[in-house]
Design a protein that fits this description.
The protein is an alpha+beta fold. It has helices at residues 2-23, 80-86, 165-173, 208-214, 227-230, and strands at 41-48, 51-63, 69-78, 90-99, 105-116, 123-132, 137-144, 147-155, 185-191, 194-202, 219-224, 236-241, 247-255, 259-265.
């Protein structure tokens, strides 16, 4: 009799307990570590050519309109004399992300937007990637001065996740790709010429000027991206992070028409 009672008790225990432990490890949006960064707004002083801090930048992470989505905005604009020489240039990069099946942040769409001039002299260029995971395709659009110049669909590599520069940044910040600045990290990204890699390496062999710029920063990385991302001659982006993995300083090397563009996090 005692054995039967014990057996019934064990069955009840398993029925009641196992559903709990089966779902307790599922990461919901509210449990995801990205929630600690939602609402963060970082401000940067930007220098280029002979202009020193005559541009400003910002990096923000906002809650998306739909539950479980996150909106990243990276923006830079010239000021004062620099604005005059660059025709009030504004560069804006945006990504809408969601939490993917593996827990990594994956892009739903990414856009880059360049604006120059105002009113009748206003010129703008938009490039946009939309990721359709159900069909395994990426839509590429290019719009110039309000006219669509390109609208194409490309196949994703089957079974391989894709990240744009901003979703890659936040996955790096959360440590999902490994230890930044200590190992080589390869992140698959989409380009209309095919899948490529964003490569993150330790920052080594700097010239004296750049070495001084990053001196004392906790985490220092060399990031290789496609030249079309920031309109550069090469692939190099140098970046440093503080101990909380906030982007602290950065140099986008050889931006066409602007040379090296440097950004420094403003202290509160």
């Amino acid at each position: 009799m005692k054995k039967k009672i014990l057996k019934v008790f064990l069955i009840l225990f398993l029925v009641l307990w196992f559903p709990v432990i089966s779902f307790s490890n599922v990461l919901t949006p509210l449990d995801h570590p990205v929630m600690d960064l939602v609402g963060e707004s970082l401000r940067y002083d930007i220098s280029f050519l002979w202009f020193d801090t005559l541009a400003e930048g910002s990096l923000q992470l906002l809650q998306g309109e739909q539950e479980g989505t996150f909106h990243v905005i990276l923006e830079a604009k010239t000021l004062g004399v620099a604005a005059f020489f660059t025709r009030d240039r504004v560069e804006k990069y945006q990504t809408l992300m969601e939490i993917g099946p593996s827990g990594l942040l994956q892009p739903l769409w990414h856009s880059s937007h360049t604006i120059r001039g105002s009113r009748k002299s206003r010129k703008e260029k938009i490039t946009r990637y939309t990721y359709d995971y159900s069909s395994g395709r990426v839509r590429y659009e290019r719009i110039k001065n309000g006219r669509q110049r390109s609208d194409k669909w490309f196949d994703m590599d089957e079974g391989e996740p894709l990240f744009d520069i901003l979703s890659a940044l936040y996955n790096l910040r959360l440590g999902f790709f490994g230890q930044s600045g200590e190992e080589i990290i390869e992140i698959p990204t989409f380009h209309r010429k095919g899948t490529q890699k964003i490569v993150v390496k330790p920052l080594l062999k700097l010239n004296k000027k750049d070495k001084k710029f990053f001196a004392g920063d906790a985490v220092q990385c060399r990031i290789l991206v496609d030249p079309e991302v920031f309109g550069t001659k090469g692939r190099d982006v140098f970046a440093s992070f503080d101990f909380n993995m906030r982007p602290q300083k950065g140099i986008i090397k050889d931006v066409i028409g602007m040379g090296d563009v440097k950004g420094t996090l403003r202290t509160p």
